[in-house]
UniProtKB/TrEMBL annotation, chain A:
SUPFAM superfamilies: MetI-like (SSF161098). It holds the Pfam family BPD_transp_1_N. Residues 100-301 form the ABC transmembrane type-1 domain. Keywords: Cell membrane, Membrane, Transmembrane, Transmembrane helix, Transport. One of its GO terms (biological process) is transmembrane transport. Its main location: membrane. Belongs to the binding-protein-dependent transport system permease family. This is Nickel ABC transporter, permease protein. It is found in: Cell membrane. It is a multi-pass membrane protein.
UniProtKB/TrEMBL annotation, chain B:
It comes from Salipiger mucosus DSM 16094. Residues 98-283 form the ABC transmembrane type-1 domain. It is found in: Cell membrane. Signal peptide: none annotated. CDD domains: TM_PBP2. Its main location: membrane. It is a multi-pass membrane protein. GO terms for cellular component: plasma membrane. The chain crosses the membrane at residues 37-54, 98-121, 211-236, 256-277. One of its GO terms (molecular function) is dipeptide transmembrane transporter activity. This is Dipeptide transport system permease protein DppC. Residues 1-23 are annotated as: Disordered. Belongs to the binding-protein-dependent transport system permease family. One of its GO terms (biological process) is protein transport.
Length: 313, 296
């Protein structure tokens, strides 16, 4: 167990490093001279002189070899310096630090909602298989899976919030305010998971150990919860890990929709202006969060399933 | 549905057939959700095709005299804030919304197929380097990568397609590689090699056809999520630029006028919903019939 945990930790560290290389490479990969673009974005009406460009290039270290540039960039990032925004000249890290809690509370709450909804509905669905509760839940799952989160959010926002006057559209980013958007996101995202978990629960209920447990006289609910659920939970856990990535990637869309003052809406405004340090910071923070979430999920899987320990050791 | 699941269980129990794709369309047609999906998809396709040659009104020219008209007999789905007919714009935008999804899937399929096959068959250092690169791409969530690419290239419809291909190709490359490696020791490939068939012909006539078919089926499972991703990014204004019609972008325009013209929201919303639903139903059928798993 300790060995496989350490191995997974080292793997996560390497992945984070590789992701950082990818994030850094965005700047050299982008067409055009960054120094020129910075000067242009700070003073759009003024055509920069070659001397200005050369001076800024030297300041930014753009005339040094690429590996040196990467290491210098990485060194600054590790110390928490994500550069300054090209538009405003303000440090990106400050803005990120201000906005990250809002994003985390929204996405975290949405994740909790969707896991609970999916767990509950899948259990009911599997217990009442092919009877009316199951049919209703399957219809919900099919419809929810066919509605992209932003579309469901848009409709819910217009009809529930604006139409019926429940909650607020302009949200402040506090945890309490996150409840309604998180509920909307969570209910939509739970649809796909309900389908997945229901299928693996039913698979597990048809297996030998479930038949054995029932043959020994245990109640169906007990078999479902004690025997089927732990075995069906593994693919569900993996799906949650993937979904963390989808939520992070979808945060610009979601936050734009709910006018949420988080990382995503910050990135969206930067995308239009091609404000590179901000976009880089978003990609880097998302990558690190994703790596951390995958790590947590995998460690949980190792803890749940002893077979994974032997396979990896 | 219980029949579906027992069929699924049966499909899982069977040993993997060599080419389980024979007569795929008839089998999909006899699958309950597969048939619904095919009919719905066919209707949407017809809607998009008709939209490229004929629409009831001119889709892109404003006519302020009829701005924000509620649905009536002349404008079946109403008009938007500049008096453009909503139905015409839905029809004209359909080939862009649906075609984009197909182009993205075609892109990840082509890149994944070539990259994965080359990597798997080359072996050695080339394989290791190529797969490490793919792993790095896979270590980032797809949409985050897409935003990174849009950041590099700037907004725009073509850039959006490139971004979504970059976001997802690595997963297909990995799958293609493992299938290519698996096929190297297949009896027919070994027999061909012993018979002195040149390497390129073994690849082109023994390995690639089956591999491409399987990868194509797996790629088609992602149709629903791709339609969703494209409409979501267009909704943000990162895709099709005005005045061209696209469902996601139309939704974004509709937001401003929701209180006076809710029909503007419903048109594109229903179209996106039906497209993803049709794609999901077909995917369910394919999963049951072929016992393949796509990317979740």
């Amino acid at each position: 167990m300790i060995r496989s945990t350490l191995r997974r930790l080292a793997q996560a560290g390497l992945t984070a490093l590789a992701a950082s290389l990818l994030v850094w490479a965005m700047l050299p990969l982008a067409p055009g001279d960054p120094a020129y673009r910075i000067l242009k974005s700070q003073a759009p009406e003024h055509e920069p002189y070659p001397a200005e460009i050369a001076e800024l290039r030297a300041d930014m270290g753009l005339d040094r070899p690429l590996p040196v540039q990467y290491l210098a960039w990485l060194g600054r990032v590790v110390q928490g310096d994500l550069g300054t925004s090209w538009r405003t000249g303000q440090p990106v890290s400050d803005e990120i630090a201000r906005r990250l809690p809002a994003t985390l509370s929204l996405l975290g709450l949405a994740l909790v909602v969707s896991v609970s909804v999916a767990l509950l509905l899948a259990l009911i669905s599997a217990a009442f298989r092919d009877r009316w509760p199951d049919k209703i839940i399957r219809a919900y799952a099919q419809i929810g899976a066919a509605l992209p989160t932003f579309l469901f959010g848009l409709l819910a926002l217009q009809y529930v919030v604006v139409g019926a006057g429940v909650g607020k559209v302009l949200s402040g980013g506090a945890l309490g305010m996150a409840l309604l958007p998180a509920l909307i996101i969570g209910v939509d995202r739970a649809a796909g998971w309900t389908q997945l978990l229901r299928a693996s629960l039913i698979d597990a209920m048809n297996s030998g150990y479930a038949h054995m447990s029932r043959a020994r006289g245990s109640r169906p609910w007990r078999t479902l919860l004690i025997h089927a659920l732990p075995n069906a939970a593994l693919p569900f856990l993996t799906a949650i890990g993937v979904s963390v990535g989808a939520l992070l990637g979808g945060s610009p869309i979601i936050e734009d929709l709910f006018t949420w003052p988080g990382l995503g809406s910050y990135t969206l405004s930067a995308l239009a202006a091609r404000d590179f340090p901000v976009i880089q910071a978003f990609v880097l923070v998302s990558a690190l969060l994703y790596v951390a979430a995958s790590l947590a999920i995998d460690l949980a899987a190792i803890a749940i399933d002893p077979r994974l320990r032997e396979a990896r050791a | 549905m219980s029949a579906t699941w027992s069929r699924l269980a049966a499909a899982r129990a069977r040993p993997p057939a060599s080419t389980p794709t024979r007569g795929l369309l008839p089998r999909l047609w006899s699958h309950p959700s597969g048939r619904t999906g095919l009919i719905l998809g066919g209707l949407l396709l017809a809607f998009a095709l008709i939209g490229t040659v004929w629409t009831p009104h001119e889709p892109n020219w404003p006519d302020y005299a009829v701005a924000l008209r509620a649905p009536d007999t002349e404008y079946l789905l109403g008009t938007d804030d500049t008096g453009r007919d909503l139905l015409s714009r839905l029809m004209e935008g359909a080939h862009r919304s649906l075609g984009a999804a197909l182009l993205v899937l075609g892109g990840v399929f082509a890149v994944g197929l070539v990259y994965g096959t080359v990597s798997g068959l080359a072996g050695g250092w080339a394989d290791i380097v190529m797969m490490r690169l793919a792993d790095v791409m896979m270590s980032l969530p797809g949409l985050v990568l897409a935003f990174a690419v849009i950041g590099i290239l700037g907004p725009g419809f073509l850039n959006l397609l490139v971004a979504l291909i970059v976001a997802d190709w690595a997963w297909y490359a990995r799958l293609a590689r493992s299938m290519a490696i698996g096929s190297r020791n297949r009896p027919d490939v070994i027999a061909a090699r012993m018979a002195g068939v040149p390497g390129w012909r073994i690849v082109s006539s023994h390995i690639l056809p089956g591999l491409a078919l399987h990868l194509g089926v797996v790629a088609s499972l992602a149709l629903g999520s791709t339609v969703g991703a494209i409409s979501g990014l267009s909704f943000l204004g990162l895709g099709v630029q005005p005045p061209l019609a696209e469902w996601g972008a139309m939704l974004s325009d509709a937001r401003l006028f929701f209180s006076v013209a809710p029909w503007l929201l419903w048109g594109p919303a229903v179209m996106i919903f039906l497209s993803v639903l049709s794609a999901n139903l077909i995917s369910n059928g394919l999963r049951d019939i072929l016992a393949v798993e796509g990317r979740r």
